[in-house]
Amino acid sequence: MINKEKTKIKKDSIVIKFAGDSGDGIQLIGYKFTYGAAFNKNKAINFPEFPSEIRSPRGTVAGVSSFQIHFGDEDVLAIGDEYDVLVVMNAAAFKSSIKNLKKRGVIIANKDGFDSKNLKLAGYETSPLEKESLKDYMVFEIPVETLTVEALKETLISKTDKERCKNMFVLGFVSWLFNRQPENTDEFIKSRFSKDPEIRDANLKALWAGYNYGDTTESIAVQYDVPKAKLKKGRYRGIMGNHAIALGLVAASQKSGLPLLYCSYPITPASDILKFLSGYLNFGVKTFQAEDEIAAMCAAIGGAYGGALAVTGTSGPGLALKVESINLAVMLELPTVIINVQRGGPSTGLPTKTEQSDLLFALYGRPGDSPLPILAAASPSDCFYMAYEACKIALSFMTPVILLSDSYIANGAEAWKFLSIEELPELPTTMIKKVENYQPYARNEYMSRYWAVPGNPYTIHRIGGLEKSPVSGNVSYFSEDHQKMTEIRKQKIENIARNIPSQKIELGEEDGDILLIGWGSTHNVIKSVTKELIEENKKVSHLHLSYIHPLPENLGNLIKRFKKVIIPEMNTGQLLKIIREKYLVDAIGFNRVYGVPIKQGELKQFILEQLNS
User: Could you write out the DSSP letters of every residue in 415-442?
Assistant: First the structure.
């Protein structure tokens, strides 16, 4: 039972950050807390961060893994610049995270992680928890490892395994702190460790030991009550961006009646798509882990030629390796979807950090004039819809399509409302079976060629990377044919603009002082800042692009209605360059490449400066 004497503080929303060593189970704490928030009908978004190295140095700042969550009512949009509660497992985690804790915020520290060894590894001479600078914070020191081992003293597992259960102790404690029963975590543990009853029971004991510690200790006399969000009626689940992409592909396969073939070489942060899809064999999904990126792309092209819904996935360095094969898919005009989950670059760069720096490469990074459509997902749940839309465009226009995601939304999670297959739009294809006088490069009203799969005596034809005659598809070296085919490929992609939704202003009026244009994972932070500024009677509007190439036909007219255009991006100004070039507007860039999402406060201050200039 909850101790009735505890003071309950009501908050519309809370930002909490967990931080510790990579081996402390921080990511598991974060995801289970996020799903617990969704289970309790809160809106929640998260931001996981972890080192690039597989075995990062324990106890050091370089080895810190963290997980930030913003949960609460319907106003939860961005991850939050600062956190209300900081949970740290050791001194290094404290050092790397304390700067963004709100004044008068709460610090929950594992006292056992501030011993002399951990202090030295973090670069402290004395414990930072004892400094005068923390007088404005509520600091709770809990010997988490000691209490966990004590709670499990009667179990038969080793002391090391007992200490590993400390993340469940912490999860139980924060469940109590936010006034909620951890039933969903209880069920998760029972399912996860069903084949190892000793480990299962130990984790369950640790979970409830943490919960009961909060309930019974006199040193912590506060709890937080966070209201439920007003969600539309329906069934919801917590979903990560990579998983949403996978489900969108499965849905497209089921709706189109085509078998899904996903070909990929493992690369952070796209690997989970391959892993997740491998569990859908019962839906006819085939996954292929290739020996390299080139092989993965070529296998996808082979699958498309054979009549499959062919998809490949990668991140920035892998997209570079796929370029020659993507060019082949452009020449062959075969429907293939290329998913690029962006990360910090260049080269190996920051493989576990987020960035939006592949846009220009996706648009221009191929030899010759080889245009293709580019889409971008805005949030974890939007990944489902944009993956489905990418398949629709590929099948309708017989073209490779690039879908851009990034590490922030790929590893982030939010509540997603289940759809029925009937709610999804149809996925028409150009596939033909029996036709008289078949011509491989004859075209329909979209200028798309018809899709003929091998084994059909009526549609025998050759394919290859050499230039084609406009109708027969025979190899041609005539300059007139190359001119004609280049124009056709270009016009086909431009025609897509007539078949995508008109661009809408998402928030604000259709004219005013400033128009904020975003794409990809900047969606929520731009929307949040726009909402604040509108409430302050500023004439600011937000427009978010899902279709980057071709751009919506009415975009230029919308842009002209505003005095200034600001484009926030996690790069050095890539969409900015595209908008300036196409619409001859002196758009202003707000660019950050810190490897983390754009901060609300920084963006808002920049907009206010532009309003006053």
Answer: EEE---GGGSPP----B-S--TT--TT-
